[in-house]
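Re: weekly structure request thread

Next one in the queue (255 aa):
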Amino acid sequence: MKERLNGLFGLLTISLCCGLTNADVLADSVEDFSGVQGQDNWYYGYYRVDIGDTPTNPASFHEAENFDMDFANLWSLHGTGDWLAIGATNQHPHIPGAGRNTVGEYWATRRWVSEVDGEIQITGLLDEGDLGGDGVIVRIHIDGIEIGEWDLLSVTHSMISLDIDATVTVGSTVDLSVAPKNTINFDGTIAELQILGDPVCPADLNGDGALNFLDISAYLSAFGNMDPVADFTDDGSFNFLDVSAYLSAFSMGCP
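Done, posted below.
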């Protein structure tokens, strides 16, 4: 098969120098984190569930108003008197206790708002930041519909790897909330998300933002190995129709 491809493209040597990219990173909660609400479509805040706020009603989400006041590089509720905190890699909910007695139950929530329509993949990591206490509950909602719930027990590290397929539209909200149980001790929670989507430029197989010989080489190698990324007609087979579809995508260029 490789020899036939070499003839089609007039190439003598096929070499894959870079990893294939099956999907584009639409959002990265660690890399995108900032002290500006809405930057890169990320928002940082809470649901105050004791007064009826709930992730099943996305409109009841509140943006946090304080950044880098209580703790360095963290969003907080008031800056003092509460436990609510959201950072690049961590989230901490609030209920009164342990010397911080702001009234109410606040679920620390990291929100991403979609700019795309279609299928996405949510990957990432959940883990106890501190061992002790009675743990937390982590939930992910899309447009108010719960798509995952995890009970982090705080007696050992859970190290939960996320791999969730979902569908969004432009404006969809993806909320990751950390809720306390009965006590607030040791409720710091590691929460890291990546949201992947269909490639913006499907012919850019090495993901460098440009179309050139490296992408053709990558495609030929993938085709020769019957890698699903080379099945451009998405019919489960590998033939000239896939090559033709790839060349057509290549000729269209990247946006």
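Residues 1-22 have pLDDT under 50 and may be disordered. The longest strand covers residues 118-128.
Next request, please.
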